[in-house]
């Protein structure tokens, strides 16, 4: 959930030129989640391959491409705001064409053209790999206001190889599937992305190998529902079989599992993670709520008892496991008592990391039609209470780490002798970080550290 704005930069010369032989430029804005980042990286590669220059200053680019997120209304609002900003540059004559791609384009289709008439092309998810041709066609004519879709997209799996990585090359996302077969009452994803389709095992492993050859030593496995992997192929214990193959990749050191659906975290998977040198003891498992009635109304197959037992099992199997979860508060009908049950559960579970969202009614979802919709200010108050409860837990966990030794992956040098890094319990972009003193390690190097203090959610470490 949520949207992140990333501008990309690059200076790769190609053959898409103006009449006076100057290369044409593309400004690219990537919004949304990790899955969208993968699509952005693939589009960027196609754009550069076609000979366009990437321009960090989007206001001076010939074409602006915005890869949108359409998951919830605030993400849509952010995308529209950026498209409107691009429209101003177009009105000033600086930018010639605006392309909207990604989830919001897929969700709204032609309606997006009506809502923002300055857009020249709305590109559906299945047209992702044609982005460069679309740009070239737009620039070659005055024709605009195109909607381009691929009706079969919801039945196929895309090729995510040959991407131009936005993030530092020592870590990358490995997308293992498209779509989702669950039907959570609040979620628009199945409407946008279609049914769950696993990327074939050989293709997934080959993409992983390519990322590792390009310098990745950490891969974050992503999907809408990662532990559903293989069920549609059909392949029994698909995720475990995929992990078996990934572990064999020599230079790959950390494998991180994101987006695990709690009911699908079975004993075999726990055993696999616990027994692996490479799969880090980090579980991202969105539980959404804990009250049984709310879970049932959400259309989730978990119950309080099952989730409680699972957390106990994970902590027992891996004493050092780091658990991240996501919650939704203010779901229709959520009473004060049910919310209090969730707060108590957060105190009991002591997740190392937690994200909380105020429920948002989305058109076309079952939950939006439910009675008992809760006022926005109550939802926000509840979200704040959860985050304050979690803050205390996260700070306590951090304090308890002082004096302990951690192996960190250097991310970025910020001062001559200070480096930002992450230990296995910190996923890129969404979690806190380690500030490593006395350290000159280059990005992608492992550094042994001792935790010397804390700074909010972050850890302060010293290189040993
Ligand atoms: S598991 Fe539920 S919340 Fe997650 S993508 Fe699927 S339908 Fe949406």
Biggest beta-sheet profile:
7 strands, mixed
The structural domain count equals: 3
Number of helices: 13
Q: Which compounds are bound in this model?
A: iron/sulfur cluster
Radius of gyration: 23 Å
Architecture of the largest domain, according to CATH? Alpha-Beta Horseshoe
CATH class of the largest domain: Alpha Beta
The name of the CATH superfamily of the largest domain reads tm_1862 like domain
The general outline is globular
Give the helix level as a range of percent: 25-40%
- Per DSSP E runs of 2 or more residues, the count of β-strands stands at 20
The end-to-end distance, rounded to whole angstroms, is 37 Å
Round the mean pLDDT to the nearest integer and report it. Answer: 92
- Measured by DSSP, the beta-strand proportion falls in 15-25%
């Amino acid at each position: 959930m949520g949207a992140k704005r990333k501008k990309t930069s690059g200076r790769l010369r190609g053959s898409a030129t103006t009449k006076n032989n100057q290369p044409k430029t593309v400004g690219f804005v990537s919004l949304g989640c990790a899955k969208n980042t993968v699509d952005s990286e693939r589009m960027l590669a196609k754009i550069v391959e076609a000979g366009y220059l990437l321009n960090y200053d989007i206001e001076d680019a010939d074409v602006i491409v915005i890869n949108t997120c359409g998951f919830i209304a605030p993400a849509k609002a952010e995308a529209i705001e950026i498209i409107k900003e691009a429209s101003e540059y177009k009105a000033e004559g600086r930018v010639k064409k605006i392309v909207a791609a990604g989830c919001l384009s897929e969700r709204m289709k032609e309606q997006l053209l009506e809502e923002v008439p300055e857009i020249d092309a709305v590109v559906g998810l299945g047209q992702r790999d044609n982005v460069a041709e679309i740009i070239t066609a737009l620039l070659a004519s005055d024709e605009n206001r195109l909607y381009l879709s691929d009706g079969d997209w919801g039945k196929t799996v895309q090729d995510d190889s040959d991407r131009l990585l936005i993030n530092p090359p020592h870590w990358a996302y490995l997308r293992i599937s498209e779509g989702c077969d669950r039907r959570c009452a609040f979620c628009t994803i199945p409407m946008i992305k279609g049914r769950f389709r696993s990327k074939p095992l050989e293709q997934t492993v080959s993409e992983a190998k390519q990322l590792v050859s390009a310098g990745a030593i950490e891969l974050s496995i992503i999907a809408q529902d990662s532990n559903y992997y293989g069920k549609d192929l059909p392949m029994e214990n698909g995720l475990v079989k995929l992990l078996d193959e990934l572990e064999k990749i020599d230079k790959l050191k950390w494998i991180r599992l994101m987006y695990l659906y709690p009911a699908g975290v079975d004993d075999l998977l726990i055993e696999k993670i616990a027994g692996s040198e490479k799969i880090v003891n980090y579980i991202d498992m969105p539980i959404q709520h804990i009250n049984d009635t709310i879970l049932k109304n959400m259309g989730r197959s978990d119950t309080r008892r099952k989730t409680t037992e699972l957390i106990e099992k994970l902590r027992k199997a891996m004493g050092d496991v780091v658990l991240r979860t996501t919650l939704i508060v203010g779901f229709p009908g959520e009473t004060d008592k049910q919310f209090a049950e969730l707060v108590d559960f957060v105190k009991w579970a002591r997740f190392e990391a937690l994200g909380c969202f105020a429920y948002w009614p989305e058109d076309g979802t079952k939950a939006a039609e439910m009675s008992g919709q809760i006022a926005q200010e109550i939802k926000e108050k509840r979200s704040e209470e959860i985050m304050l409860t979690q803050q205390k837990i996260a700070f306590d966990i951090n304090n308890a780490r002082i004096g302990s030794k951690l192996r960190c992956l250097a991310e970025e040098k910020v001062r001559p002798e200070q480096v930002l890094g992450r230990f296995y319990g910190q996923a890129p972009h969404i979690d806190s970080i380690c500030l490593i003193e006395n350290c000159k390690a280059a990005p992608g190097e492992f550094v042994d550290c001792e935790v010397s203090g804390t700074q909010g959610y972050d850890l302060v470490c010293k290189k040993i």
